Hints:
Residues 1-27, 125-163, 192-213 are annotated as: Disordered. This protein is 47% helix and 16% strand.
Amino acid sequence: MTRHEPPDPLAAVDPADPVLSEEEEREVTALLLQAAGTGPVPTPSAVTARLDDVLAGLVAERAAGSGTTTPTAPAGTAGAHGATAAVVPLERRRRRLPQVLLAAAAVVVGGYAVGNAALDGSLTGMTSSSDSSAGGAGEGADDSDSGGDAAGGQSEEQSEAGGLAGEMSFLPSVRRDHLAADVRRVVRLFDQRPATGGTDEAPEDGGLEQTPGCPVPRLAEGQRLYEVRYQDRPAGLVVGPRQQGEVGVTVYSCRDGGVQLSRTVPLP
C-alpha cells in the first residue's frame, strides 16, 4: 500500500529563484559589502531558515513526482542500481552560501579596484607625458634662444676679427731674417707712393707724425713711411735716407710707437 504525504505549502516555491523578503535582501547586501574582510562570515538566521524551507520543498516535490518516499540512505552506500548515493548534509550546504557570496563579492570588488588602478595609471601617465612634453618644449625654446644669442655674439666677434684680418692681409710683411729682401719688395710695391717726408730740416721738437692708426716720429728729408706687418702686427716701416749705397730701415710698432727693428740694408 502506497503512503501519500500531505501536500507541502512550500512545494510551489521555485528553488532556483527563491523570493526573499526586504529584510533578507538587506542582510544579503550587507554580506556582499563585507566580502572584502577576512575570516568566515556567519549566515543570517533568516537566510538559513529560508534555505531549509526551500530544500524541504525540493525533497517533497521529488517525492510527490515519484509517488513513493525514497528513504535516505547512509552516505557511501549503494542504491538499487548499484550507484552510490552521495547525500550532502544540510549543514554543509549552509556553509557553502557564505563562501559563494564571498567569492562573488571578491570578484566584484577586485574588478572595481583593478579598473580604478588602470584608469588612475593611464591618467597619471597622460599627465606626466604632457608635463614632460611641455617641459621639453620650454627647454628647447630656451636652448634655441641661448643658442641664437651665442651664435650672434660669435658672428659679431668673427666679423670684427675678419675685418681686422682682412685689413692685415693687404699689408706686406717684414721679417727680421729677410729684412733686405722684404724692404726691397715693399718699396717696389709702393713705388708710386709719394714721400710723406721731405722737409729740408729735421724737426726740432721730435714730435710724432700722426699717421692713420700708427704713430711714428716725424719723417726727415728723404724718408718714406710704409704700412706693413711685423710679427703679425701692424707696424710702420720708415726707409731712408740713403747713405753711400745703403739705406737706413726702422720698424715702429703701431700700438705704442716703439722701435721694433732698426738696421741698414742695401739700396732697394
